[in-house]
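Lecture notes, unit on protein representations.

Consider one protein chain, 164 amino acids long.
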Amino acid sequence: MSTTPSRPLSRQIQARVMSMLNVFMRPILRLPFPTPLTKRLMLVSFTGRKTSKAYQQPVSYVQQGHTLLTPGGGKWKLNLREDQSVRIRLRGQDVFARPEFVKDPDEVEHLICVMAVANPTVGTFVGIPKGPDGRLDCDRLETALKYGFMIVRWHLAEGMEASE
């Protein structure tokens, strides 16, 4: 009989705090014009796969060319499917994007580094420390991936390239 490991207490507390902050973030991210918050946050709209309930999840993002990168911690990403586009409120505009789940440890590490250069606070939310060699701690990265962490790479619908 296998048991699902529980998340570390620090991650449980972080999830609760983020849940409370999201209540205030959603209305700001729904505004029809860009705000300082929309430079780093977007609002992902999706339907619950079991409940069919509509959800809106604020997530941080970093633009990489014609794609957006999002750290995929938390349960919200379980409702996404790689073959279905979802609506995203990005800098005051609705766009559609298809998620791609990146779970390969080497690619995840590379993308976290890319994201941290563009947005240094990403490291705080990801919570995987760097080792003495400057790379992410391999054991902590493996543990995070085991608990379901991933990077969500968003492919914008054609003609919907994000402008900086």
